Amino acid sequence: MAMVAYAGPLGNATTLSAAFAASPAATTWLLSSMSVGLAVGLLPAGALADLTGRRRVFTGGALVLAAGSVLCAVAGDARTFVVGRVVEGLGAAGVIATGLGLVAAVTTDPAHRARAAAWWGSSMGLGIAGGPLLTGLFDLGDLWPASYWLIAGASLAIAALAPRCFTESAVDPGRRMDLAGAALMAIGLTALLITLVEARRGDAGIALTGAVVAAVALAGFAVAQVRRRHPMLEPALLRHRGFTAAALAAVGTGAGVIALMSFSGTFATGAMGLSSLQAGALLALWSATSAAAALLLRPLALRMTGTTQLAAGLIGAGVGLLMLSGLGGPPSAWRLAPGLIVAGVASGLLNGGLGRQAIATVPADRAAVGTGVNNTARYVGAAVGTTLVSVLAATPHASPAAQVAGWNHVTLLAGAISLVTAVAIVAIDRDRHAEEAR
């Protein structure tokens, strides 16, 4: 459900932009705003869950997701809708940061946890496939708010069922929440996104101010994590090469494949002339394939190390994204299909690997923080990547030729990000093995 909420505007961004008479900058925020909420909320949600109980944060996250969805449904302007999307992101952060940890708590058996991670990755793919299809169906009747009412109702049902489905996790009463760290991270990431959006508008003053605020806040967050007794992100975790590789893979996933797929619906409805439903169906070639591959490739993944699984997924995703480039003339859905399917298969392998490494590279009592860090990295990458893609690609109001040229540029960028990230995590893993040999 969190991914349905996240992916909904990917299929009908053009409809939302028209409904709110949104400027190009506002349209960028329509796509990026939930990623901001996720990026800001995931790590604090994970830390809070390990301190107060994962089930409690999971349930609270579902309630906040419902509240944000209601705000989106009643929004009368772009600003209110963006606020609702940020609230949705904060609620989804509570659900995502704790869900995998709650499932992993059932057993310590590595094979069971790998299966759980595969199902978790598959559910993400199914949600991303379902979101644009849902909004596309409601668009047929000019009823786009209905999808947000549906998400709100489903989220309330999830909150009601959680106490029956999960036992509460153990908590550490000796730890304290790092409120200063959470505030610094939230300020830094929000300022970074403002910088990118305002740079596109050409407002150098606001962009420069945002860049300075982001740099100061994120530097302050790093210092606070080193000096505080109970940091939100223990520096010791960052010295674990497997943890670092998994976080880097998550950033590359967000900035590469997720960012490009977040923009694909806008391209499909603008340059290709597809309806919202048709754009959602086209995107499902990637997302539904990802959901199936996460399960079907599980036996293969169990024979790989975690880092190998991540590298293989990123390489496959990079190849698939590069296959989407080189469009000319009126673009065809059939021309995009092979690349979307290749990227989907690789994303299924990649999502399972991210879930696997998120809990395998941290102590058992810090599983929610591990999941929170990994997903924070993913959605920081997605927020920054989506903004960059929107900045570099032509606007939906440009000519079809300009939109196709912009698409060709951003597909090359996204593919390169995926491949470079794969090389980087292989290098990190090789250094780890060299250190162990010494």
Automatic annotation (TrEMBL):
Major facilitator superfamily (MFS) profile domain sequence ranges? 1-433
> Membrane-spanning residues where?
31-50, 57-76, 82-105, 117-134, 146-167, 179-199, 205-224, 245-265, 277-297, 309-327, 333-355, 376-395, 407-428
Q: Pfam families this protein is in?
A: MFS_1
Q: Which GO terms describe its cellular component?
A: plasma membrane
Cellular location(s): Cell membrane
Signal sequence interval, chain numbering: 1-21
Q: What is this protein called?
A: Transmembrane efflux protein
